[in-house]
Amino acid sequence: MRKLSEEKLAAERERLELMKSYERQYEDSILVCGIDEAGRGPLAGPVVAGAVILPRDCEILFLNDSKKLSEKRREELFLEIQEKAVSFAVGVVGPERIDEINILQATYEAMRLAVSQLTSVPQVLLNDAVTIPGLDIPQVPIIKGDAKSVSIAAGSIMAKVTRDHMMAEYDKLFPEYGFAKHKGYGTAAHIAALKEIGPCAIHRRSFIRNFVD
C-alpha cells in the first residue's frame, strides 16, 4: 500500500472516525457485527454474505463500500480484515437454492449462514439496509450502511472478494461465458453468450427466462 502524506493520512483517519459513529452507539455491546451481501443482481453464480466483527480500536485505512474501491484495494483490505478482525465469516447460497426460494430469501439465508459461522457471538448486528428474519440478535438496518459503518464496509468487502474469487474459478470451468470479467452480471457479452450457447450449471434459471427458450 502506497505511503500517504500526513495531510491525506489525517483526512482518511477523520473519515474512518465518522464511519465508526454507529459502532459507538453500542458501547455496552462488546461485539458489534457488520453484515452485507454481494451478488443479488447477477444472472449466474451464488449470492454471498459477509459478517465481520472488528475490534473497537481497530484501524483499517480505506475501508469503504466495496463498490467504491478498486479491485487491488479490495484484495488488500480482504487480507487485512482477516488479519485484524475478532471474527469473520461468509455465507454462500448457490443458484439452485436462489431459484427455489427467490433471491431475497436466499440473501437472508446467506446472511444467517455467515452469522452462524462466526467464532464469537455478536451482541448486535449492523446490516446494510435489511432486517434478517430468523435471528434472535438485535439488528440495526442502515441504508447505504456499507458507506456509513466500518463493520458493514468490512462485511461488504469480504462478500464481494469471496464471490469474485468464486466466479474466477467458475470461469475456468465455463470459459465461454466470461465469468472472470463480468462476474455473472448481465452484460451484453454475457447475454450474447447465453443466447448462443444456452445456460450452464451456475446460471439462475429464474433470472434468465427473458434470454433463453
From TrEMBL:
One of its GO terms (cellular component) is cytoplasm. It catalyses: Endonucleolytic cleavage to 5'-phosphomonoester. The keyword Cell division does not apply. Residues 30-213 form the RNase H type-2 domain. Its EC number is 3.1.26.4. Its main location: cytoplasm. It is found in: Cytoplasm. Manganese or magnesium. Binds 1 divalent metal ion per monomer in the absence of substrate. May bind a second metal ion after substrate binding. InterPro entries: RNase_HII, RNase_HII/HIII, RNase_HII/HIII_dom, RNaseH-like_sf, RNaseH_sf. It is an enzyme of class 3 (hydrolase). One of its GO terms (biological process) is DNA replication, removal of RNA primer. A divalent metal cation binds at D36, E37, D128. Its cofactor is Mg(2+); Mn(2+). The keyword rRNA-binding does not apply. One of its GO terms (molecular function) is manganese ion binding. Keywords: Cytoplasm, Endonuclease, Hydrolase, Manganese, Metal-binding, Nuclease. Belongs to the RNase HII family. Endonuclease that specifically degrades the RNA of RNA-DNA hybrids. This is Ribonuclease HII. It comes from Hungatella effluvii. The gene is rnhB.
